[in-house]
């Protein structure tokens, strides 16, 4: 008898916790965004964003995937945890030193003298951040995601309070930096207060961990070049204001993918590891998970794209109007990357991190080429459209690899999501028709109008989807998986 249903059930409720965590964190982030966007302008976000490009690049290229190694290794000992903790401290020290070294040349290259002290602050954040208690990994490994929820939420609240307070009192871009500092320090305090583990300095299990992480290190090194290509080119070829607009648009447009897809991938890693010896169950769970993600993200991303103008006027202000077309395009890119967290979790559980590395290596060439041609020939929006094209290529390659490994069946996936696609087309038609009407009494009531528009779109999508599902005899698919679990406490069973 397969253990798949119970694992799926655990995964579903683990996902609910992680999605709740992400949504709570994002709600705090959105409140912070609304407040700070009224105080700070695109140039402020752009300045901090330029520093974050370098800091983020260094974090990516030194990411060893050691937490994933602990989660997928069901026999990990205390020595493994001690070794990972020690490596994280050394990694933080290395990044800090690199930021100190790069601060001056980066300020010259980016023509931003004010960026230097931001580098110094990020260096301190990196070094201190490496000391967080590695024992918190067990929250995910043991699927006790309620603890993971409170851990991440507490750190986010601390960052929010410090950032908003600083912005309100001093009206400076340093609010963005100090928020990160507060969040990092809070994570360290919370990690030791919530986890009983007390790691020690040790490198005893370095060799065994490196056998897994060598591919992840190479993958992250290559991925960093791909993922930061847009940021580097924006910093070189366009204005600081455009960097700020792009970063803000990327964050807003990516809400559906980051708040749904990433929690799902986070929750699926331990579950995939338990099913890796049964390929039928492994494949079934992969397809079911992808289907559920797409059933939620497709209408959400489409809605963000259609209502981008309202989002900008509601959340930001008139100084951000240039972000509207960027959000419209990048929301579709968010749809492309929505399946990647699940894909990555599956490859790691399948013990094929080498595949991630090889595909990342290939992606460097077309990402850099497309980004360069886009911005050099067509300017700022050329790069934005190039990012979308890169996303389409990446997701196509990834899912064809999953099909080659017999993890994914396109036919089964199509059977699961065709109703979602039809319902989405109905939502698009319904929204465009509805938006033609000018409701006079709602003039000036941006929030009420936005909520009403979202309600109309969600209603058309939901009613169409459920109607199609019932007409098909309540067959297997994301509708049955979600409703079956919520109403009967079971995954995908009637």
Q: How many structural units, i.e. domains?
A: 1
- DSSP summary, beta strand count: 0
Let me know the largest β-sheet.
none
> Proportion of β residues?
under 5%
Which outline best applies?
globular
Topology as a string of helices (H) and strands (E): HHHHHHHHHHHHHHHHHHHH
Average of the residue pLDDT scores:
86
Coarse structural class = mainly alpha
Distance between the termini: 18 Å
Low-confidence stretches: 489-494
Count the helices. How many?
20
Determine the fraction of residues in helical runs and give it as a percent range: over 70%
Cα Rg: 23 Å
Describe the structure.
The chain has 494 residues and is an all-alpha fold. It has one domain. It is 82% helix and 0% strand. The protein is built from 20 helices and no strands. Helix 2 packs across helix 5, helix 10 packs across helix 17 and helix 12 (255-275) packs parallel to helix 16. The longest helix is centred in the last third of the chain and has 52 residues, at 353-404. The protein is globular. 48% of the residues are buried.
How are the SSEs placed, and which strands pair?
Layout: H1 4-39, H2 42-61, H3 66-72, H4 78-109, H5 115-129, H6 137-141, H7 145-170, H8 174-194, H9 206-227, H10 229-237, H11 240-253, H12 255-275, H13 279-306, H14 308-315, H15 323-336, H16 340-349, H17 353-404, H18 410-435, H19 446-471, H20 478-488
Helix pairs in contact: 1-7, 1-12, 2-5, 2-9, 2-11, 4-5, 5-8, 7-8, 9-17, 10-17, 11-15, 12-13, 12-16, 13-15, 13-18, 13-20, 14-15, 15-17, 16-17, 18-19
């Amino acid at each position: 008898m397969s253990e798949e249903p119970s694992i799926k059930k655990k995964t579903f409720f683990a996902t609910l916790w992680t999605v709740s965590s992400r949504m709570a964190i994002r709600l705090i982030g959105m409140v912070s965004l609304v407040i700070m966007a009224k105080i700070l302008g695109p140039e402020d976000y752009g300045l901090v964003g330029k520093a974050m490009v370098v800091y983020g690049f260094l974090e990516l290229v030194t990411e060893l995937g050691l937490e994933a190694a602990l989660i997928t290794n069901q026999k990990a000992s205390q020595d493994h945890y001690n070794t990972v903790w020690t490596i994280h401290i050394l990694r933080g020290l290395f990044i800090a030193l690199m930021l100190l070294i790069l601060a001056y040349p980066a300020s010259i290259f980016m023509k931003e003298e004010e960026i230097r002290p931001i580098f110094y602050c990020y260096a301190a954040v990196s070094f201190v951040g490496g000391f967080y208690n590695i024992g918190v990994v067990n929250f995910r490994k043991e699927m006790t995601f309620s603890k993971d929820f409170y851990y991440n939420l507490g750190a986010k609240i601390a960052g929010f309070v410090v950032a908003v307070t600083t912005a309100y009192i001093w009206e400076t871009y340093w609010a963005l930096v100090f928020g990160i500092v507060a969040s990092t320090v809070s994570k360290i305090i919370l990690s030791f207060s919530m986890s009983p583990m007390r790691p020690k300095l040790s490198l005893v299990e370095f060799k065994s961990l490196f056998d897994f992480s060598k591919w992840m290190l190479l993958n992250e090194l290559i991925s960093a070049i791909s993922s930061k290509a847009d940021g580097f080119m924006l910093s070189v070829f366009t204005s600081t204001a455009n960097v700020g607009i792009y970063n803000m648009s990327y964050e807003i447009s990516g809400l559906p993918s980051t708040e749904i897809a990433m929690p799902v991938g986070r929750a699926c890693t331990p579950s995939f590891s338990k099913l890796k010896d049964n390929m039928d169950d492994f494949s079934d769970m992969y397809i079911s998970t992808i289907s559920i993600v797409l059933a939620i993200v497709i209408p959400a991303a489409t809605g963000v794209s259609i209502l981008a103008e309202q989002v900008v006027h509601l959340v930001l202000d008139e100084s951000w109007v240039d972000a509207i077309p960027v959000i419209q395009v990048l929301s579709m890119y968010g749809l492309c990357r929505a399946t990647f967290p699940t894909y990555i979790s599956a490859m790691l559980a399948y013990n094929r991190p080498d595949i991630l590395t090889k595909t990342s290596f290939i992606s460097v060439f077309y990402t850099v080429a497309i980004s360069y041609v886009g911005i050099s020939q067509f300017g700022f929006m050329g790069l934005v459209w190039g990012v979308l094209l890169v996303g389409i290529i990446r997701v196509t390659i990834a899912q064809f690899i999953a099909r080659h490994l017999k993890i994914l069946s396109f036919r089964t996936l199509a059977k699961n999501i065709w109703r979602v696609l039809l319902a989405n087309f109905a939502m698009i038609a319904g929204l465009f028709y509805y938006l033609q009407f000018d409701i006079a009494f709602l003039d000036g009531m941006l929030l009420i109008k936005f909520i009403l528009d979202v309600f109309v779109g969600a209603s058309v999508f939901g009613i169409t989807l459920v109607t199609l599902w019932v007409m098909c005899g309540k067959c297997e698919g994301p509708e049955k998986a979600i409703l079956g679990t919520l109403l009967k406490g079971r995954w995908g069973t009637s």
